[in-house]
TrEMBL record:
Keywords of the record: Oxidoreductase
Designated name of the protein: Short-subunit dehydrogenase
Superkingdom assignment: Bacteria
InterPro entries xref list: KR_dom, NAD(P)-bd_dom_sf, Sc_DH/Rdtase_CS, SDR_fam
Domain Ketoreductase, first and last residues per copy: 9-191
UniProt source species: Pseudorhizobium tarimense
PANTHER family hit by this protein: OXIDOREDUCTASE EPHD-RELATED, RETINOL DEHYDROGENASE-RELATED
Family according to the record: Belongs to the short-chain dehydrogenases/reductases (SDR) family.
Length: 267
C-alpha cells in the first residue's frame, strides 16, 4: 500500500469486494473518507476502481483474514499509509449450510476463523491504535441469526451470536475512551452469501431478501450516530424481538424449516 493523503479521514472495511461490505465502503466514500479495503478474492481490485470514482483515495489488498498472517499483512498495509484509522468496519464473514456432522470440519473451522478469529485480531490491533489516539468508530457486521440456534447453520449462527455479544461488551469497555462500537444486525440480504454457503435449495435461500445498499446505509448511519446496535428492516426487528422471548428449542425448530436442505422446494 502507498500512503494516501486526501479525504476526510481513513475508513477500513473488510469483505468489501461485494455485498454489504462494498456498500459500506461506498457509504464512507460518499462521505469523503479515503479507504483501505480488503477481501480474499481478486474482485477487491475491481471494487477499488469503482470506489475511486467518488474522488477519494482507495488502497486495496487481496488477503485472507481467516489467517493470522492475513490479518498481520493487512494491518501492516494500513500502517504503511501513515494515517490513523477513523472508521473500522469489520464486515468479512462466510456462511455454511447443511447439518454439522455432514459438513467438512475444515469448512466449519474456516467459518469460525473468518467470522470470529480474524475479526477479533483485527479489532484488537486497530482498536488499540484508536484508544491511544482517543477517538474512532467501529462497526461489526453481526446478524439476527445470532439470536437463534441455527439448525442446519449451527456454526454460522454460533459465530454471529459471538459477534453480537462481543461488540456490545466491547462497547461498554470503551465507553469512556472516545471510541464507539456499533453492531449491525441484518437479516437475509441479497448477496452471494447463500450461494457460497450452499443454501440455494433452502427456504431462506430462495426467500425474499433485503437490498445490501439499504442494509449498509442503516449500519453506517448507526455507526456515525454512535448507536450500540441496529437491526436493519422492520420484519427483522420483529423477528429479533420475538427471538428474545421464544424458547431456544422452538427457535431451532423454526430455523430448521428455513435452512434444512430441500426446504426451498416447499416455496
Amino acid at each position: 500500500m502507498n500512503p494516501v493523503e486526501t479525504g476526510k479521514g481513513l475508513a477500513v472495511i473488510t469483505g468489501a469486494s461485494t455485498g454489504i461490505g462494498y456498500e459500506l465502503a461506498k457509504c464512507a466514500a460518499q462521505e469523503g473518507y479515503d479507504l483501505a479495503i480488503a477481501a480474499n478474492e481478486p474482485r477487491i481490485q475491481e471494487a477499488a476502481m469503482k470506489l475511486k470514482e467518488f474522488g477519494i483515495q482507495v488502497e486495496a489488498m487481496q488477503v485472507d483474514l481467516a489467517t493470522r498472517d492475513g490479518v498481520h499483512r493487512f494491518v501492516d498495509g494500513i500502517s504503511s499509509l501513515g494515517r490513523p484509522v477513523d472508521l473500522l468496519m469489520a464486515n468479512a464473514g462466510v456462511g455454511l449450510g447443511h447439518g454439522f456432522l455432514d459438513e467438512n470440519p475444515e469448512d466449519a473451522q474456516r467459518v469460525v476463523d473468518t467470522n470470529i478469529t480474524g475479526t477479533i485480531h483485527l479489532a484488537h490491533a486497530i482498536g488499540n491504535r484508536m484508544r491511544t489516539r482517543g477517538s474512532g468508530r467501529i462497526l461489526f457486521t453481526g446478524s439476527i441469526a445470532g439470536f437463534m440456534p441455527g439448525a442446519f447453520q449451527a456454526v454460522y449462527n454460533g459465530t454471529k451470536a459471538f459477534i453480537n455479544s462481543f461488540s456490545l461488551a466491547l462497547r461498554d469497555e470503551l465507553k469512556d475512551t472516545g471510541i464507539t462500537v456499533t453492531c449491525l444486525m441484518p437479516g437475509p440480504t441479497d448477496t452471494e452469501f447463500f450461494e457460497r454457503a450452499d443454501l440455494m435449495d433452502t427456504a431462506i435461500g430462495q426467500g425474499k431478501k433485503d437490498d445490501p445498499a439499504y442494509v449498509a446505509k442503516v449500519g453506517f448511519k448507526a455507526m456515525m450516530d454512535g448507536e450500540g446496535d441496529v437491526v436493519a428492516g422492520w420484519k427483522n426487528k420483529i423477528m429479533s424481538a420475538a427471538a428474545n422471548v421464544t424458547p431456544a428449542g422452538m427457535l431451532a425448530g423454526q430455523h430448521r424449516k428455513m435452512a434444512e436442505p430441500g426446504s426451498g422446494k416447499a416455496n
